[in-house]
Each structure stands twice: as structure tokens, then as C-alpha cells.
What we know:
2 domains; alpha/beta
Amino acid sequence: MNKVKKIIDGAKPPESNISYRRLSDIKAEPIKWLWNNRIARGKITILAGDPGLGKSQLTAFMAGVVTNGGSWPVEKARCPKGNVVFLSAEDDAADTIRPRLEAVGADLSKVFILDAIKNCGNEGEKHERGFDLKQDIQNLETFLREIGGAVLIVIDPISAYLGGTDSHKNADIRALLSPLSDLASKHKAAIIGVTHLNKGQSKQALQRVTGSLAFVAAARAAYVVAKDQNAPDRRLFLPIKNNIGDDRTGFAFVIESVILSAAINTSKIVFESDLVMESADDALTFDNNSGGHSALEEAKEFLRDVCIIGRTAKQVESQAKEAGISYATLRRAKDQLGIKPKKDGQNGPWVWRLPDLEDAQDAQD
């Protein structure tokens, strides 16, 4: 007896649960650029580099161009005018971000700082918590609709907003970034995720971006800020990859001091007038050979990045090993930053978390 069920003549076959579109029904559209052939709207871009090289000044410069609808350096392409959103876990809005934006002449009325997420407890009490990409994409979308006209979103550093997601697990990072990419596309906003470099010895720049390769893979473009090997004060802004634009040329700039008032001294970047042909791989190969920051400073920066939220000692030590940081150096950095393992709940693991600034200062005194 044939056990295979046959569809009765005239009966409608069952429908699949697959969402699909016929390509002939999809209208071709040009890429919408924030920075022509460099940074696209509706896409994620990664910006990586060691501490102190000007990544944050670079995003401030971008905000100045965007809020004024100005021109980008060298090629003088015009920028669409719009609002800018900053998620910044490292720089204070009052004494760092605002002065830097003033220094580049940004329209401050078009810049928004996302501070926290408002929540209500079971008994109606209100409290705030940090933004979390794992659970707050809908909150971010509501916020973008509320302010309207956002064309640039800066997440600095992106690792500070991962929630409990392990930054070194490809599948977890892809799952986290997919909704963020969808949000960028829906609102036609360029999203720039700022991150650091690891201490690996790879000659490929994309292997030097901290965390999972999924960060670079999910981005349509990725850039690095590096020192010029022949001029220590000169910075290079170079493409690591660009799937949809120019991946061959970059830019050079210097950081200049700016006095806004007797009490406020800040800085801004000034671009050179010509494009740069050096590759990111070459720039970072020199950086590896020259030593760059001391191992201890690299380890401290790593901990500032990873331990913004609680991480178990096992997680921290594993990620530090992948980043090329020795156990001894990691422990010295932990002690200097005043990080003391604390129990996460009654039955939870021991975690490392950055202390308050005052506690950290007391630890170093």
C-alpha cells in the first residue's frame, strides 16, 4: 500500500512559512551616501584604532559636517544635512563631546546624546539603566521616530552596549548586529561602531579589530585610524574594507588644540588636502613592529573596554589571551584600575567590573 499522501485533485497545497520576494518585484535603488563612496546611509560602518589617536575627534568632525550639511575633505562631496545621535560610554557629554563639537562648528541643536533607558519597576517606581543593543533596538527605533531626521548614529565603543553578549562569538555578534542593520536600513541612517585594535600579530588589518570577525563582516565598510610611521603626529584614516565604495584610498589628518574659552581647551582634527594611498595592512604592520602603546597600557584599555559590564574572570582571561595580553600584565592592569572581583548575586559567578572613578583613584593612590 502506498503510504505517501496524495493531494486530492483540486485541493490547495499547504503554504510554506517562508517570507520571500520575487526579485523582479524589487525596484533597484542607488546607494544613499553620507560620505560619498566612504560611509553609506542605511549601513553599519566600523571605525577601529588604538586609544588616543583621534577616533572620537573624527566622529565629532563627522557630526559637524552632518549637522551643517557641509562638505567632506579632499573630494569636497556634499553631505546630507540631518541629526546626529551619540551613544558614548567613554566621553563625558559636557566636558568632552560638546567642546569638541563646538570646535568644529557643529549645530548643537541637531546633536542628541542617548544617556539611558527609562524603566518602571513592578510597583511603578522609575529607574534608569544603560542602553543594551540586545534588548533596546525597539527603544532606539522609537527614539529615532521621536526626534526625526537622524542620518548618523555613533556608538562609541560598540563593545560597551553588547549587554551579556560575548564579543568574541561570531554567531552571537551576527545575531546582535542583524536587527541594528535592519534599523539602519529602515531609517536610512549611517551607524558607526567605534572599537579598538587587539595586540595580535596578524598582517591583515581586519584580523586586528577587537572581538569577533562578525563585527567587520556585518559592516559594509570598516576603517582604521593609525599613526604615520614617518610622522608621529600625523594620523591615517584608512579603509580596511569597503564592499560598496572606495577601498583603495584614505585620508591623513593632524589633531590641533582649540581654546574655546579661558576654562575650556579642547581639540579638533584638520585633514590634509590630498588622498592617501597607503594600505591599512601596511600601517598596522608597522604599528606591530614599533611596539605602539606599552603592554600595560594596552591591557588597561582592554579592561576598560571589556569590564564596563560585569564579566567573569574566565571570560576576561580568555578574551585577553586572544588579544595577545599575558596573564601577568592583565593582573597588573586589573590592580591599577582598581578592579576587584565581586560575587554576582548569591549563587552567581565572581565577576570583574570597572569601579567608580573615585574608587579607581583610591586604588592607585
